[in-house]
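Look over this record as teaching material.
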Amino acid sequence: MGRFFQTLVALAFAAVAHDTSASENVTPNGAPVEIRLYTMDCGTAEFADGDLFSDTGEYAGKPLALPTPCFLIKHGREWMLWDTGLGDEIASHPGGVEKSGAHFVVNKTLVSQLSELKLKPQDIRYVGLSHLHFDHTGNIGLFTNATFIIPKNELTAALGKPTPFGIDTSELAPLDQAVMISTDGDYDVFGDGTVVTLTTPGHTPGHHSLAIKLNKTGMVLITGDLYHTHENYDKSLVPRMNDRTYTLGSMDRFRRLVANMKARVVIHHSPEDFKGMPKVPEFLD
């Protein structure tokens, strides 16, 4: 099964690389498939000292404020959420909360943003997680009808002892009852090459980025935490908590994909990229 999906993804990517114009996605019978990408505000993380985000000292002693978005994808009549952000319960603390040496704020709940599209958490078919750090898993328990896409090696590492950096095991508890797709490689979510998770380990063992093929915009690659800022992207800076060797390999792969697909890059935590994305109820298509 793993080899089948790898072949399928390779064929989908090859087709995109040979036709880099924004072309319409179609179903097997030729009918158009509507693909939309929504950006949702799922909190903000504020660090008094951003030194954690580069092991070569670029952020030492400098404050850093990073948005924590979630991304909602409409594929025909189906919905997929990419990351679940900081927990909605933080919104009940107007001043935010302190956790793991940083300050976290949620001004608008994920549930309220779904409701702007007349959606409930139960309407989401797939929830994909770039990795299992708590600022990406805060609302897992809301999505009781969803199938979760989580690499086996990512979940195994997150549940290891001692508990790894950035993991809140209480947020992961609902996964015990969840339906899961566990694949350590790339995964073609809808089987048509329009939404593909990309293995980019280094930040965590099973970290993934995401590729979305939109009808008008073309290819969009969302980095996840492979990069946190534009400086990280431009200089290939490696956060202190990362595996440096795997991270640099993933960065090389990501840049080659961007070049071959002529893709728009969305750096997950970049303030500039977050500001430049249309927010719910607006979207990219």
Notes: The longest helix spans residues 244-261. Residues 1-23 have pLDDT under 50 and may be disordered. The longest strand covers residues 35-47. Residues 73 and 202 are 25 Å apart (CA to CA).
